[in-house]
């Protein structure tokens, strides 16, 4: 196994099965963040992750962390918190603000540099990348963003400025996504936060099979229109006569 250097003249990616075991999932280096290349990567279960100023690295880890919307874990403390309806949660109201907030981590560092932000904002304008915003008294206090692949959503990052904001963003999105036919959320690599919310690991081969099937099942366009998704309940699209 070796890291493949991408050709600037081609959008082809190597098979994810050839990714390194250590570091887990590293597959290729180089290329760019143009919309065609990013979409070609997501279509194959590959995503970029690298430090600003360094070469772009492309990954497809094994196992893969995923969240089935119906398996979102709503614990007792979050149930009590939700009784007060502390947030208004929207979809695709301010993508630029969400990705900028995900990038602003003074104590942790971030891979979401200006180049990455511009690339995903372009995907958003093209209708592929989407954001969830959590508002408290008209202030943006949490959110998440990612890339749609039919009935599968590739989650990229989330942020929280107040307690439970990112949890509520994911919970509201799971309900809305499922109501419109969404079946699986890609969490990439499992961490303690997503595991507590119900994410689990599956073999990469299984994830790629799911991806191949679900990307052929696009959500109804109304599911991605800018809208309030909480506290207003999600409603599935009307049946076509």
Would you give an account of this structure?
Helices cover 28% and strands 24% of the residues. Helix 3 packs antiparallel against helix 4 (114-125). The strands form two sheets. The protein has an eight-stranded mixed β-sheet with strand order 11-5-10-9-8-7-6-12, with helices on both faces. Strands 1-2-4-3 form a four-stranded mixed β-sheet, with helices on one face. It is α+β, with helices and mostly antiparallel strands and 241 residues long. The longest helix has 15 residues, at 165-179. The chain contains seven helices and twelve strands. It comes from Serratia nevei. GO terms for molecular function: leucyl-tRNA--protein transferase activity. It is an enzyme of class 2 (transferase). Residues 222-241 are annotated as: Disordered.
Features:
241 residues, alpha+beta, 8-stranded mixed beta sheet, 4-stranded mixed beta sheet, 12 strands, 28% helix, globular
In short:
This protein is α+β, with helices and mostly antiparallel strands and 241 residues long. It is 28% helix and 24% strand.
Radius of gyration: 18 Å
How far apart are the termini?
Answer: 52 Å
Global mean pLDDT: 92
Strand order of the largest sheet: 11-5-10-9-8-7-6-12
* Percentage of residues in strands: 15-25%
| Largest beta-sheet characterization | 8 strands, mixed
Family: Belongs to the L/F-transferase family.
Organism: Serratia nevei
Region (Disordered): 222-241
Subcellular location: Cytoplasm
């Amino acid at each position: 196994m070796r890291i493949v250097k991408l050709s600037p003249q081609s959008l082809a990616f190597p098979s994810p099965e050839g990714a390194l075991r250590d570091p887990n999932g590293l597959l290729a280096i180089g290329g760019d963040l143009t919309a065609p290349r990013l979409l070609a990567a997501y279509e194959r279960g590959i995503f970029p992750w690298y430090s600003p100023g360094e070469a772009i690295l492309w990954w497809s880890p094994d196992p893969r962390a995923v969240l089935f919307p119906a398996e979102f874990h709503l614990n007792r403390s979050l149930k009590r918190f939700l009784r007060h309806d502390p947030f208004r949660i929207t979809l695709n109201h301010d993508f630029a603000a969400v990705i900028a907030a995900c990038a602003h981590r003074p104590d942790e560092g971030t891979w979401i540099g200006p180049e990455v932000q511009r690339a995903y904002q372009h995907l958003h304008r093209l209708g592929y990348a989407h954001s969830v915003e959590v508002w408290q008294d008209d202030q943006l206090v949490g959110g998440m963003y990612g890339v749609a692949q039919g009935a599968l959503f590739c989650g990229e990052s989330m942020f929280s400025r107040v307690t439970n904001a990112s949890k509520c963003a994911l919970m509201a999105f799971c309900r809305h996504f499922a109501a419109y036919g969404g079946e699986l959320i890609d969490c990439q690599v499992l961490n303690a936060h997503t595991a507590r919310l119900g994410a689990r690991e599956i073999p990469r081969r299984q994830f790629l099979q799911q991806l191949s099937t679900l990307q052929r099942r696009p959500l109804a366009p109304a599911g991605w229109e800018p809208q309030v998704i909480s506290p207003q309940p999600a409603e599935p699209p009307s049946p076509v006569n």
